[in-house]
Specification:
This protein is mainly beta and 352 residues long. It is 2% helix and 48% strand.
Length: 352
C-alpha cells in the first residue's frame, strides 16, 4: 500500500486463471525457527486506542473522549478531528504511507447510531461516505489516492456484510457467485487492487474460506485454496500483487506464515513454535504478529523478514517484549499494545 508502483500484466494473467500456481523453487529459502531478536525504542502513544501509523511516524486512532485523533511521534503534535454528529464516537482507523486518513464516525439515528466511513478531502470536517441507517461500517485501509476499503454490516440482516471500496463514491464489491457469505475487504494497494475474504457455500452445504482480490474495475478473482483445506488468513496486498498472511489448519497445528505471488505461488514458513498469527505486513515481504508461547500462554510479538526469518521484538537494551502488535509502517515502526497501553516501537538495529 505504501509505495506507488504499477502492477505488472503477469498479475492479471496469473489471477485470471482458475488453476493453482505451483510454488517456485527458492535458491535461498527463508530461515526457519527463531533467529534471535531485533532491538528498538519504545515511545508511549498519547491516544486511548492507536490503529495505524504512516511512513513519517504519525499515529492515528482516538483519544480519551472517543473522538478521532492523530499524534506525530517526531514533533509531538496532536490533532483532533472531531466527529460528525455532536459528541458521538469517531476514530481514524487507517492512514496511508503519505498520510491520507480514513475511519468511522457515528451518525445520530432514531434508535441506533451506526458508524459510517469517513475520510478527509481537504479542510476538516470529516466527510461521511453516506448517512444511511441501513449499514454500520468498518474501515480497514486507505491508499495515497484516498481510496478507502472496508466492510459494512447490514443492520438487521442476520450478519450479512457488504465489502466496499470508496473512490468517487461507495461501491459494493461483487462476489464470484451468490453463495458467498461474510465477505470482507481488508487491504488496498496504490494501484487500486483490493484484498479481501469470504466464505463459499458448496453443494453439500459446507462453507469454505476463500481469499478474494478485486481489480480496480471491481471485477473479482479468487486465489487458489491451500492444500488440505487449510485456511489462508490474508492481511496485506503489496504493489506487485503479492499477498501476505498466515495458515490455519483444520487441526489447529502446523501454523505458518504464508505468502502468495503471481509468479511463485504459495510459500510457507513454519511457526518457530506455538500458534502463529500475522497481524500486519509491508511491501518488502515483512510482517509482524504474535506467536503464543506454548509454555506460558503469553503473546510473543515477532518481526519477520524473508532474509532474516522470525525475530522477537526487543527494547534497545535487549529486553524481549510481550504484547500484541497492531500495525507496521513501511519505515519499520510498529504499534504494539504492552501493559494495556499503546506504544510505538522504532527499530534501532541494523536489518530491521
Amino acid at each position: 500500500m505504501r509505495r506507488h508502483l504499477v502492477l505488472s500484466s503477469i498479475l492479471t494473467a496469473a489471477l485470471g486463471t482458475a488453476v493453482a500456481v505451483p510454488p517456485a523453487a527458492a535458491a535461498d529459502p527463508p530461515p526457519t525457527g527463531w533467529q534471535g531478536s531485533v532491538c528498538g525504542t519504545r515511545t508511549a502513544i498519547p491516544l486511548t486506542v492507536a490503529r495505524d501509523v504512516d511512513d513519517a511516524g504519525v499515529v492515528v486512532g482516538y483519544d480519551q473522549r472517543t473522538r478521532a485523533a492523530s499524534w506525530d511521534s517526531r514533533t509531538g503534535t496532536y490533532r483532533w478531528y472531531g466527529g460528525i454528529d455532536g459528541g458521538l464516537f469517531s476514530e481514524i482507523s487507517a492512514v496511508s504511507g503519505a498520510g491520507r486518513v480514513a475511519g468511522v464516525a457515528e451518525v445520530d439515528g432514531p434508535t441506533t447510531n451506526p458508524p459510517k466511513a469517513v475520510r478527509v478531502e481537504g479542510p476538516l470536517p470529516l466527510r461521511p461516505v453516506d448517512r444511511s441507517l441501513r449499514t454500520a461500517d468498518q474501515v480497514h485501509d486507505v491508499n495515497d489516492a484516498n481510496v478507502v476499503v472496508g466492510t459494512s454490516e447490514v443492520l438487521g440482516g442476520q450478519g450479512a456484510t457488504e465489502p466496499f471500496v470508496w473512490t468517487d463514491r461507495r461501491y459494493v464489491l461483487p462476489t464470484p457467485d451468490a453463495s458467498y457469505r461474510f465477505v470482507h475487504a481488508r487491504s488496498v494497494n496504490e494501484a487500486g487492487w483490493v484484498l479481501g475474504e469470504g466464505y463459499h457455500l458448496d453443494t453439500q452445504g459446507v462453507y469454505h474460506h476463500r481469499v478474494l482480490v478485486w481489480r480496480p474495475d471491481r471485477t473479482v478473482l479468487e486465489l487458489p485454496p491451500l492444500p488440505d483445506d487449510a485456511m489462508f488468513v490474508a492481511e496485506h496486498i503489496d504493489e506487485q500483487g503479492g499477498v501476505t498472511g498466515h495458515r490455519l489448519s483444520p487441526d489447529w497445528e502446523n501454523d505458518a506464515l504464508v505468502t502468495w505471488s503471481p509468479t511463485a505461488g504459495y510459500t510457507s514458513v513454519p511457526s518457530p513454535g506455538g500458534d502463529l498469527q500475522v497481524i500486519s505486513a509491508d511491501d518488502r515481504g515483512g510482517a509482524v504478529g504474535t506467536i503464543i508461547d506454548p509454555t506460558s500462554g503469553s503473546a510473543l510479538p515477532f518481526l519477520y523478514r524473508p532474509d532474516t526469518g522470525f525475530r522477537r521484538l526487543a527494547t534497545a537494551d535487549g529486553t524481549l517484549l510481550r504484547g500484541v502488535p497492531y500495525r507496521m509502517s513501511e519505515a519499520g515502526q510498529v504499534i504494539i499494545m504492552t501493559d494495556q497501553r499503546p506504544t510505538l516501537w522504532t527499530p534501532t538495529c541494523a536489518g530491521a
